[in-house]
Amino acid sequence: MSVQMNEQLESIYQEIVKRNPGEQEFHQAVHEVLDSLGPVLVKYPEFGKRKVIQRLAEPERQIIFRVPWTDDKGEVHINRGFRVEFNSCLGPYKGGLRFHPSVYLGIIKFLGFEQIFKNALTGLPIGGAKGGSDFDPKGKSDNEIMNFCQSFMTELYRHLGEYTDVPAGDIGVGGREIGFLFGQYKRITNRYESGVLTGKGLDYGGSLVRKEATGYGAAFFVQEMLRVRKQSYEGKTCVVSGAGNVAIYTIEKITELGGKVVACSDSNGYIHHEKGIDLELVRQLKEVERRRIKDYVEYHKDAKYIEGGNIWDVPCQVAMPCATQNELTGKDAEKLVKHGLIAVGEGANMPTTPEGVRVFQNANIAYGPGKATNAGGVATSALEMQQNASRDSWSFEYTEKRLAKIMSNIHEICYETAEEFGTPGNYVNGANIASFIKVAKAMLAMGLI
Ligand code: GLU
Questions:
Q1: Structural contact between residues 92 and 58, judged by C-beta atoms closer than 8 angstroms
Q2: Count of H-run helices and E-run strands, the chain
Q3: 142, 378, 394, 402 — which has fewest CB within 10 A?
């Protein structure tokens, strides 16, 4: 428990923990937000009186369902599906679907809770939600993935709609899965409702830049943090964990902006390539062939692969955790600071542990929390919804410009709010406070909901 958290917030937090036993990641995400809210409750006593925090921490609706499917041998499998519709006061529920064996209610709720605030920061009309399943897509055939997606959507479709709830991808859910899910939704409802899912293929209502958006946005956000400190990517060594969609496009944009990315990873180990990561090869291995990152060294003899290693051992000035939650610990943060770290931009959701965040803040590192730094993905989903609603499609250049502007706006809001509330340079406070106030005001305006 942090020292700043006042008694009122502390007791609200304890009540939330008690009401939601065993949901550790959810508790962590709630704690991180509440930690920033002391001065907000002083400035806006009505938020406390009307129990806005307690209402926000209770999802509007939680759906848990059975997903039966058959593999290629005809064997039956049963997975668990989730959709937690957290808050819809700024717009229809919006947030991705995660397919990963670690998924349980606590993970979906942490992601859904974060999503409320992240989506508010984009300034676009989207509420917060998250969903997914404990299904493991690793090693499954296209046919098995399709069977699973069709069964998942056969239950989920009744809860969705372009004005109700609009899912997208997250870990384990990319273009292929969204295609199967959209096909099944269309088939069951007999409606070509483009705006019901985002991250669609470009042939059927998807938006240019959506695939790149989370990574590009994260790179833009860090560029802004560096700019404020009169720095740039030029000549900086960067490390990007992960090798999925977010990591790939973070590497691409950082490289374009003058930085040198020397390491990336997957869940088995990491690649260290002093000369700079060969992005085309990573893309071929991961996106096209769905292989492991260790195969990289077959093509580059001067690169090293460290099986089971810790990517944060690699010295860098810019660290971009783009893999998964709690991947960067207090010890990792200490090592990074010792090695000359300047900035951290979270491409993943909650990748740094609370101890790690504290280390960065005490060392005055420019630290961009996920809900601000990785908001470019969902922001571009909202741009996809705009294009779908007007039956239009925008050029790559125009869409990327919109994304860059959204990211610099988010940076500015976080920066200014942190200053206004007496903690200059603290992007965690800036992001939490600015987004919370926006959501809380909308909730109060709508009465007791
Ligand atoms: N899963 C992404 C996120 O964490 C994107 C969600 C969306 O586009 O709806 O923000």
A1: no
A2: 18, 12
A3: 142
